[in-house]
């Protein structure tokens, strides 16, 4: 594979991966304006974020079997079409209930991009390179938290929050055209793959029962929820508690994203000296310690704006280091049913993320304590799952091809 082709593949796959996060990050600075415009509260507006997470969680499971049955592109195009239509629906929303519903549909369509991109990594690149490729995708993904909130803040101030959703529709159209003209089909349709409920459930169960998958998918998903805790809480913490403007919030969000993105790029160096499992273990231990310090500092009210930013930055660094490795390790045992495995991996992450975002909205405390508490609980639980699950991994991936036969 030439370096130029490698670059374009990473760019397109990264853009597909970034579509859902961009859809989240870009409208966050508009929360106060959306609340005023739709005559509701910022907490109610946050439910449109929760509905988006729920939509992604449900949609992942829908697209996994479709990608294995019909190839990667047809289900991807269908999902992108739904996403574009729902984005226009968000633009025309006249009440918070309509916005919440449209965001759910937007997520169901947009998650096709996430599942397809992860699946194609497993299709196109050797297993030993997957962690490095996922780290590169996070680099492209980094455009979302660095650009989206800043652009969203300025668009909201100048033109109103509704225009954000037309911009998202336009971005999806550009991505669709890029896939049509520059991204090859990486997997031929499998006529033998059944879409009947029984075989689909059976295929999901085979994946879920694989120790290497459930250990790293669940531990990685729980750790990744620390990122969702930050995303869900940050508008309240920074704009409500610390009273920063939507533009300044956008810049803070971009700055903090450097921790997540930059740390993910360390994997290219770390993977040369350490195994992915060792890297995950160290990252989760560090995340537990940092989250505990963050919680103590928040409860004692001694961090201030600068201290809060530093603690969040360090937690996101841990997530950025762990995430590419947990994804690569979870998908490593699978080839024939990579779409099913990728869908389940994404569903674990987004399902946990949706629960976290709903949980954050239930806290009445106007401080960074809920964010820090959830980060500590998430990192501790992820580490415990990792320690318990690794005992079952050895010898747990044999006979997968036989188990998948006929599905």
Task: Describe, in plain words, how this protein is organized in 3D.
The chain has 407 residues and is mainly alpha-helical. It has a single domain (8-183, 192-404), classed as MFS general substrate transporter like domains (Growth Hormone, Chain: A, Up-down Bundle), CATH 1.20.1250. It has 17 helices and no strands. It is a multi-pass membrane protein. Belongs to the major facilitator superfamily. Bcr/CmlA family. It holds the Pfam family MFS_1. The chain crosses the membrane at residues 7-24, 44-63, 75-94, 100-121, 133-155, 161-183, 213-233, 248-267, 279-296, 302-322, 343-363, 369-388.
Describe the protein's topology.
Blueprint: H1 3-25, H2 31-37, H3 42-70, H4 73-91, H5 96-124, H6 130-141, H7 143-159, H8 162-182, H9 197-208, H10 211-241, H11 246-264, H12 267-273, H13 276-299, H14 304-331, H15 338-362, H16 369-389, H17 400-404
Helix pairs in contact: 1-5, 1-6, 1-7, 1-8, 2-3, 3-4, 3-5, 3-15, 4-5, 4-8, 5-15, 6-14, 7-11, 10-14, 10-15, 10-16, 11-14, 13-14, 13-16
């Amino acid at each position: 594979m030439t370096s130029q082709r490698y670059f374009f593949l990473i760019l397109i796959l990264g853009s597909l991966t970034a579509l859902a996060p961009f859809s989240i990050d870009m409208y966050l600075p508009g929360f106060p304006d959306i609340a005023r415009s739709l005559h509701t509260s910022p907490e109610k507006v946050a439910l449109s974020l929760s509905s988006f997470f729920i939509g992604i969680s449900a949609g992942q499971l829908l697209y996994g079997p479709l990608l294995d049955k019909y190839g990667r592109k047809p289900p991807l195009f269908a999902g992108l079409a739904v996403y574009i239509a729902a984005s226009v629906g968000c633009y025309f929303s006249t009440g918070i209930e309509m916005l919440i519903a449209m965001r759910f549909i937007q997520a169901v369509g947009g998650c096709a991009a996430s599942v397809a991109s992860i699946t194609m990594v497993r299709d196109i690149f050797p297993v030993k390179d997957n962690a490095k490729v996922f780290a590169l995708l996070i680099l492209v993904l980094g455009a979302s938290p660095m650009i989206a909130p800043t652009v969203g803040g300025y668009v909201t101030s100048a033109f109103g929050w509704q225009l954000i959703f037309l911009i998202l529709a336009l971005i999806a159209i550009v991505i669709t055209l890029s896939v049509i003209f520059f991204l090859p089909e990486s997997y031929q349709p499998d006529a033998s793959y059944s879409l009947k409920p029984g075989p689909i459930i059976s295929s999901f169960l085979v994946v879920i029962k694989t120790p290497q998958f459930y250990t790293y998918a669940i531990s990685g998903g729980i750790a990744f929820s620390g990122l969702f805790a930050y995303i869900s809480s940050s508008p309240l913490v920074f704009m409500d508690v610390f009273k920063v403007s939507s533009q300044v919030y956008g810049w803070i969000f971009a700055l903090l994203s450097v921790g997540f993105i930059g740390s993910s790029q360390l994997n290219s160096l770390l993977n040369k000296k350490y195994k992915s499992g060792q890297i995950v273990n160290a990252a989760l231990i560090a995340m537990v310690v940092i989250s505990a310090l963050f919680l103590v500092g928040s409860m004692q009210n001694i961090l201030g704006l600068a201290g809060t930013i530093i603690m969040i930055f360090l937690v996101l660094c841990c997530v950025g280091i762990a995430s590419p490795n947990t994804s690569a390790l979870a998908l490593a045992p699978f080839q024939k049913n990579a779409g099913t495995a990728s869908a389940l991996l994404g569903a674990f992450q987004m399902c946990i993320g949706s629960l976290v975002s709903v949980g954050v909205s239930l806290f009445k405390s106007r401080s960074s304590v809920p964010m820090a508490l959830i980060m500590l609980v998430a990192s501790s639980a992820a580490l415990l799952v990792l320690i318990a699950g690794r005992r079952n991994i050895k010898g747990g991936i044999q006979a997968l091809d036989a188990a998948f036969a006929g599905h």
